[in-house]
Amino acid sequence: MADEKLADAGRPRASKPSRRAGIVAVLLAVAGLAAGVASVAFDLGWALWIVALVAIGLALVLALSGARRLAVVGALVAVVIVAGGIIWARSAPPLPDGAIALPSAMAGEDTEDVDEDVRIVIDDAEQAVVGFSLEGERLWANTEAYAESRSAVLTGGSVVTYGAFGPDAAPATALSAATGEVEWSVDVGHANPFTANDEVIVFTDGERTVALDRVTGEPRWELAAGAYASTEGPPKLYDSYDPGRWRPGAEWMVVGDAAVGEFQVVDARTGDAVLEFTSGPTVIGRWVIAGDSFVAFDDDVEPTATATPLNGGSGWEREVLLDSDGYFEPIGDEVRIVHDDSVQWLDARTGELTLVEVPEGWTVSTGGAWLHGARTLVVERRDRDRNLLDVGLLDSATGDLTEVAGHPGRGARIIGNTPSGTLVSLPYRDAVGDAHDRAVLIPE
Predict the structure, then answer these.
(1) Residue 296 forms beta bridges with which residues?
(2) Of 246, 253, 248, the residue nearest 221 (C-alpha)
(3) 111 pLDDT exceeds 50?
């Protein structure tokens, strides 16, 4: 018996954590849980969330500190809790069905333009024009076409960079969208690109409009008049009227003198006039070119749209719903008229009108949420105090609504329109309230 007692005395015994350590562990656990719940419920940020995770981890370590093996297990579990909590809190909400997440660089403010395959970024840090694939792969970089305050547009298989600001404007330079190699470089003064098609790219400075061959850069035609886009446009572009804004893919365009209210519709390929119209001095009437039709809007009595064909055929006239809260823009052969709660599609060839209603409780966002020609629109749901509750993506042709999961961030907007679909910036707030940018492709 004495030998057994001696043997027992020689074995290491698992010690229990002290009563004080147990109390501290309980207090840390309670404090950690309270801090964690508060940081998530009230968006109090990462500092409090990290403190909460560390407190819970320490509580676990103290609770299991009575034995060496248990203490090691507790430390490992505590590390897992902290790491897992950080990963969980930073995780992005799920994407809408079918949407494709793009690299974070694609959502930057320095992004200039996009086509089906290439996203163009003016990289001031690198002092280069950089082409990325939509999957984020760096395709090429060109330093020759870079200059301060430079911008870019994509037309066909070319990237055209230009710098119309400052006393010494840099020449317009065309790069291959596939390789980044220079195709041509032409001095256009302080003119900006206005439109392009498969034959020409047109520049205007408000007093002179010049068309260059899209492939060679050789001059095709020139007019001593400014070029004018549709008098309406997305709110992002129309906070102040910009008559010379970029309108891709135009076959027809308007030139003239706004000071006297005299305008012409010209063939963008040749510069030949096909239609003349007037407007009051300094006031440009409400009109748009959609497909091969010039559509003018008159709301003196009832809002009315009148179409004049530009290549032969019969015109039409009909009433439309268009008030001060709405805006219209051309998309192919149709005119899209957007209000807070509805979208109308006006066929410029026939005058047929199709109404698409925005789902109840949702409104079309006007806070920089537009891009010319994009089929997808950003919609919002807000409370009575105008606090943002939810963000959604509306197919403006069908009225189908896709709600964006998670905590919406401010500034959801359309950032690109490609043959593959619409590029959308969908900011979100993580579990503890920090804001993150995210760019996605919505296939069409």
Answers:
(1) 287, 306
(2) 253
(3) no
**How is the chain split into domains, by residue range?**
15-90, 285-349, 358-444
Element (H, E) at 141: strand 138-142
pLDDT of residue 7: 46
Find, among 207, 108, 211, the residue nearest to 160 by Cα: 211
If you count them, how many residues does the chain have? 444
Domain at 285-349, CATH class:
mainly beta
DSSP per residue over 337-358, as a string? EE-SSEEEEEETTT--EEEEEP
Asked if the model's pLDDT at residue 238 lies above 60, the reply is no
Q: Which of 223, 225, 244, 222 is nearest to 233 (CA)?
A: 244
Sign of CA dihedral 347, 350, 351, 356: negative
Look up tokens 């020609």; give the residue: 373
Residues contacting 72, CB < 8 A, separation 6+: none
Is the distance from CB of 193 to CB of 202 less than 8 angstroms?
yes
Q: What share of the chain is helix, strand, coil (3-state, %, to 5)?
A: 20, 40, 45
Closest Cα to residue 203, out of 218, 216, 189?
Answer: 189
